[in-house]
Design goal:
Helices cover 46% and strands 18% of the residues. The chain is built from six helices and five strands, in the order βαβααββαααβ. The chain has a five-stranded antiparallel beta sheet. It is globular, with a radius of gyration of 14 Å. The N and C termini lie close together (11 Å).
């Protein structure tokens, strides 16, 4: 699996969609990662933060798809739920560690090995980004190519 994942904050779906083809670099401050299924991660993180099941999060149509390449194989753009964004923005270090541990356990149950320290760093970075835009009308987007 070779996936480029970039999380960024944008003021609207329209503003975020402008970067679908080339990614957010140069337009929005972004956090870059790779090689995990970010769509599933967004669902799992929301489930862990809120106590909702994977199926409940999916039934709520989260995360919302802003741009889907379909069969063309181009980049995909998702927006995290406001609930997840707010939970990340409000989370302290101990909560981020707890969520990352539970997420790593979920990944392990599916046969995927994810380093605990990387998981903590990833969620901490996302929390800092979400917190920086707290109270503003920006949303957390995930671009994948």
């Amino acid at each position: 699996m070779s996936i480029i994942i970039k999380f960024f904050m944008a003021p609207s779906h329209e503003a975020a969609a402008v970067v679908v083809d080339g990614g957010p670099d140069g337009t929005f401050e972004s956090l870059s990662y790779g090689n995990f299924n970010a769509e599933v991660a967004l669902i799992e993180w929301e489930g862990i933060f809120t106590g909702r099941s994977f199926d409940e999060v999916i039934a709520a149509d989260e995360p919302e798809v802003v741009a889907d390449p379909g069969d063309s194989g181009g980049p995909m753009l998702l927006v995290a739920s406001k609930v997840l964004q707010d939970a990340l923005a409000a989370a302290g270090r101990s909560r981020l560690v707890e969520v990352s541990q539970l997420w790593v356990q979920e990944r392990a149950a599916d046969g995927e090995v994810f380093d605990q320290e990387i998981a903590i760093q990833l969620l901490s970075d996302l929390a800092r980004l979400a917190h920086a835009f707290r109270g503003r009308d920006h949303r957390l987007y995930c671009w994948m190519a």
